[in-house]
Amino acid sequence: MNLILLEPAELNAPLSRTDPRAEHIIKVLRCEVGDSFDVGLVDGPLGKGTLAALSDEALTLTFTWGPPPPPGDAITLLIGLPRPQTARDILRDATTLGVGALHFIATERSDPNYAAATLWTSGEWRRHCLAGAAQAFATRLPVVTHDRSLTTALAELPSATNVPASHVPALTPGATTLTRLALDNYEATAPLSRCHLVGDTSIVLALGPERGWGPADRAALRTHGFTLVDLGSRVLRSETAVIAALTLVRARLGLLT
């Protein structure tokens, strides 16, 4: 836990001693009354928290805040609904790496039962995003949905100039380009590592479910302007493919400098 993240509603209330964040402050950071530590407000600024008082039941904290955070990264992930444990890993790690939105979608070959998992119905998914943000020392959480089909998600993508990833031109100031890429082990026409992306490009990156895209999925993706790309000849687990693909995209956009 590199950052103590707090929701806005928590700022004016004591933090229970049983809260994992309180245990981290006391047992890991070894803070005593008067000591300060790094905090963040969810979707808000970074700052410093101070342990103002300590009782057997709760911690009383005070805060000083820095400037607002920068906008979120212009990367949207469309992911065929995976098993819940795989989804947990993706929620955490994609948030750590930095994405603007995570849409878990029903596809031709995804298991419809996964949408009814307690991960989604209980709201547990948000906890994994918070863990990912705290790991990254960041406060921005991605927009997350889990109740759309691929067809609906494609229809709801933002409007922008669609440019094939291999032919993205130099952009004039203020121009908006939306590049749509889909990972596919079988019908890819180019490796993701060779796609030419520029820093002011918005990216939509689609990854199929654990059984891969079906023919109807590929047809829909192509109809909506997606270029099918791959990560090489090795077949990766879904959670590994997300990390590898995001790392390549962020490097191409200059976000790893």
How does this structure look, described?
By secondary structure, this protein is α/β, with parallel strands linked by helices. It has two domains: 4-65, Ribosomal Protein L25, Chain P (Beta Barrel); 75-252, SPOUT methyltransferase, trefoil knot domain (Alpha/beta knot). 27% of the residues lie in helices and 27% in strands. It has seven helices and 13 strands. It has helices spanning 20-28, 84-97, 118-121, 125-136, 150-155, 215-223, 238-252, and strands at residues 4-6, 15-16, 36-41, 46-54, 58-65, 75-80, 101-106, 143-149, 161-162, 177-183, 190-191, 201-207, 227-230. Strands 6, 7, 8, 9, 10, 11, 12 and 13 form an eight-stranded parallel beta sheet that branches. A five-stranded mixed beta sheet has the order 1-3-4-5-2. Strand 6 (75-80), helix 2 (84-97) and strand 7 form a beta-alpha-beta unit. The longest helix is centred in the C-terminal third of the chain and has 15 residues, at 238-252. It is elongated. The two termini are 23 Å apart. Residues 161-175 have low confidence and may be disordered.
Blueprint of the fold:
Blueprint: E1 4-6, E2 15-16, H1 20-28, E3 36-41, E4 46-54, E5 58-65, E6 75-80, H2 84-97, E7 101-106, H3 118-121, H4 125-136, E8 143-149, H5 150-155, E9 161-162, E10 177-183, E11 190-191, E12 201-207, H6 215-223, E13 227-230, H7 238-252
Parallel strand pairs: 1-3, 6-7, 6-12, 7-8, 9-10, 10-12, 10-13, 11-13
Antiparallel strand pairs: 2-5, 3-4, 4-5
